Amino acid sequence: MLRSIQQTSFHQLISKLMKRYIIYLLLMFSICQSGFSQTTELKGRVSDDAGIPLPGAFVKLADSTYSAICNESGEFSLQAPAGTYTLLVSYIGMESQEIEITLPMEERLEIQLTSQSLDLASVEVVSTGYQQIPKERATGSFAFLDEELVQRKVGANVLERLGDVTSGLIFNQGPQAANDPISIRGRSTIFSNTQPLIIVDNFPYDGPMENINPNDVASITVLKDAAAASIWGARAGNGVIVITTHRGGESQPLQVSFNSNVTISQPRDLFYMPQMSIPDFIGIEKQLFEKNFYRSTENNANKPKLSPVVETLIALRDGKITQAVADARLTDYAQSDIRRDIESYYLRPSVAQQYALSLRGGGKVHSYHLSLGYDRSDADIVVNPSNRWTLSGGNQWKLLEGKLEAGLDLNFARQESSSRTALPNGYAYESLTDEAGNPTGIIQNYNTRYIESVKGQGLLDWNYVPLNEIGKLDNSTEAYDFRVSPYLKWNITPDLNLGVYYQYWSNQAAGRNRNSQELFYNRDLINKYTQKDEQGNLSYPVPIGDVLDVSENNSFSHTFRPQMTYAKVFSGVNFLNVLAGAEIKDRQGVGFSDRFYGYRDDLGSSVPVDWISRFPMYYNPGSQVSILSAQSHSGFTDRFISYYANIGYDYAHRYFLSLSARKDQSNIFGVESNQRGVPLWSVGGGWIVSEEKFASGANMPFLKFRATYGYSGNVDKSLSSDVTAQFVNFQFYDVLPQMRAAVLVNPPNPDLRWEKVQMTNLALDWETQNGFFAGSLEYYSKHASDLLGEYSVPSSSGKSSFTGNFAETQTRGVDLSMQVKWLRNSFHWSTNVLYSHLKEEVLDFEKEPTVNNLLGSAFLAAPYPVVGRPLYGIYTYEWAGLSPDTGNPRGFLDGEASEDYRELSRAATIENLQYHGSARPTSFGAIRNDFSFKGFSLSVNISYRLGYYYKRRSIDYYTLLRGEIGHGDFDNRWQQPGDEEFTQIPSLPASADSRRNSFYSNSGALVEKGDHIRLNDIRFSYSFSKVNMPWLPFRTAQLYTYGNNLGILWKASDDALDPDYQLSRPLRSFALGLKLDF
């Protein structure tokens, strides 16, 4: 009974509460409806005086709490009751405006703000690839290049536009840069991918950068710290480069632009690398001949080639020519140089032409852009052209009064390159023509006595006449790159939107190399496989005809990204921006190559061959070789799924907080790593001190502190958590038919995970009164952990080492960027200074390198880590000078000068090798001066690299005394006592001594400081304007010239060669161009 009463009371209570709640909801709905019925919506757009949107601009109704923040298109919307208001519009770096308005207002407001004297923060909107952020609200480290700076250089490669105008970014040079051309704030990995993540129009770009037309680029943003880049997660450890291309603007009249330029570059300098004189080399060959050095080569069954000098000496020895004839030949050789012939017949200045046409514009609901590009390049080797066509177009729509936005971008690129001429490779003193100027043969593969002996045996012509092959190669590649990117964005409320973005990308590349019978390669291949029976009849396992090599590589990817953005102003001073989304990517590729023999281009047919049998070589029947198949197949699958979020908070435009997090999963990570899914994250804060009341009277109108901390990552896509193997052609396929062989690539590793890069960034931004002096100073620390490294394992496992997440490095550095505007009247002069300093250190690495690894690392791309040292260093034997008696190189053994090269090598350890310093610049930057007067403009950029060493090349006596021409240092060698006072180049030994040569080539005598200052480039232009010249048929025009790689101004080394270009001279180039805007 009591329970029943209690239950009844409970139900009655609930019933009463529900009735009251419903009445309350109805009342609130009625009030809200009444309130809404009394409010009106104000819409507008804020831009600068050039019509560029100002995302982040603050709009507020005075003496009220009604306010809004402009979105990425500079648009805003706010609700307020009807009445008369003063609208306040502000943006850092722009003059604020007060506009009297009366609500309701049907038309949309178009508000243009004019620039203040501040320039550092004005209208700079940096892009992370997911969102655009006004620079004054950013806490992270960004380097921003606007269109003017991007277009300052001339060339077809967009990434080259970043060189020496971006703080913290350097283009590496030398042999170690082969796999690591660009570094942002040092290197964040050891063996994984070293390159920055490239974002093009908000999506990672997987294709060749040559497919991006620089004329289409509106801006480039480089993300350098964790707060800027961590939203890209496991792919952002090396930094991120965000490329944004042109778009049509809302309510923008049709704008047509045309840009054309031609660039002429020096041909390669074959005389750049010092080479010993031809007479000296002939003298060495004569000495070797007298010592019977070439006897073994003469008697070799494979009939290997011998130099013309040696062939002449053999003919003289065998009585086939007289002494007078031999002397005449040797005199002719001493006066010849094949490099001169190559320069005359093969090389010319390269010419690059570039043409670009673009159209863009838009109305209130539709905007569009279209660009066409054509580039042609004729290389410095004759008859080697390449072409590029690019097409880019897009449409953007605003539907349902801006509630729904839609867009579609299409990008297409086609690349063609053709190699129809190859440089010949002959002896230093061979000539490509005879005395009458007719093409003549040079020695290739076999000695001349053998080639003469087989004439008349029915073989194809076995002579190599290089000049007859100019333009006869048929080696071409063709590639197509295609991207389509549709999107939909639903503006649910003025503060909340939901977007769905998709991109399909594909790249198809095909190669074709046809070697016809006009080419020595083809005739040699057929001849050496030719078979002769007992009756002297010839048969051809490699059929007579052309040899065709083909290859094809096709890749494609799908990327899908739903994303939500929320931006809201609370109480007029609190601005919250939230972004969250997910990204799914599937990238796949397949490739193959094949070879066809006896090919006929007119019929498109070939002849089957016997791949299995081994055939006696015609020149040496004792050597049996199977025919090369050149067949290969490959493929890959790369899948990624990511979840990310970013929160930004702004209080009163003075205090800023940013938070970001991302979780990545991939089919290449181990199961356990994917399950743990440790997110990569960042936190950052900013304080604009100059907005404080106590700073209002200071002469520093812009002063901001920033600090960030967080993690990003890196991935090596060549590894997998699963067992992977590469199947190859079995070496003894003819013995064991249908036998497969596989090479173990990596064993199972369920713990395989992304590399993590922890980064701290502290920064100060400033600008003085009237923008006279502005800059940014940043200190950063990067701690990279879980880096892929190696440790040794028993050979019974099938591998000598195992790769896993074992290594650790650290980098600390400073980036300084400054601008001084000296003059700003009719004559403008400004100076931009970039300075970066860094210190890299390996903290942990399991596998210790060998002494030989370190000694040879100066000329290798692969790093050999040493704990406590930079990843790339210069290591040598300690140098004790030359012997005053013999001119032999000496090192230190137990503290004493020694010439015992066996013991010097045996006693060498990592600890007693001499470490000179980093092989990469530890300080670098540029100083750019810009001048303008009326329509004339001049920009001069000087770059510098400091704090590093390199090892120069020198004479290699071991190869010289085995018949190869040597380095030009031979002329400055030690020849008599006392020479050691002015030379460090050893004497010529009596015989080839590999240990002596190895010691010298790896000694400290060859180490030089790499510090230098370079005149990087100069741009000069004159601009025309219809404002000043009404009769012009175009709105503006600019005639410009550009010179690049203009030379070294100073270097610390006395070495004659460029510290960064030891093998080939950096080629000067000069461009002339015209840009028209209609």
TrEMBL record:
Give the GO cellular component terms, alphabetically: cell outer membrane
Family annotation (Gene3D superfamilies):
Carboxypeptidase-like, regulatory domain (2.60.40.1120), TonB-dependent receptor, beta-barrel domain (2.40.170.20), TonB-dependent receptor, plug domain (2.170.130.10)
Q: Which UniProt keywords apply?
A: Cell outer membrane, Membrane, Transmembrane, Transmembrane beta strand, Transmembrane helix, Transport
Matching entries from PROSITE patterns are given as:
TONB_DEPENDENT_REC_3 (PS52016)
Could you tell me which residue ranges the TonB-dependent receptor plug domain spans?
135-240
SUPFAM superfamilies cross-referenced by the UniProt entry: Carboxypeptidase regulatory domain-like (SSF49464), Porins (SSF56935)
- Has UniProt tagged this entry with the keyword rRNA-binding? no
The record's annotation in Pfam families points to: CarbopepD_reg_2 (PF13715), Plug (PF07715)
Note the InterPro entries from the entry: Beta-barrel_TonB_sf, CarboxyPept-like_regulatory, Plug_dom, Plug_dom_sf, TonB-dep_OMP_SusC/RagA, TonB-dep_OMP_SusC/RagA_CS, TonB-dep_rcpt-like
- Compartments, as annotated in UniProt: Cell outer membrane
Is-annotated flag, keyword Transmembrane helix?
A: yes
TM region positions = 21-37
Q: How does it sit in the membrane?
A: Multi-pass membrane protein
Q: Which NCBIfam families match?
A: OMP_RagA_SusC (TIGR04056), SusC_RagA_signa (TIGR04057)
Family, per the entry? Belongs to the TonB-dependent receptor family.
Q: What is this protein called?
A: SusC/RagA family TonB-linked outer membrane protein
Species name: Algoriphagus aquimarinus
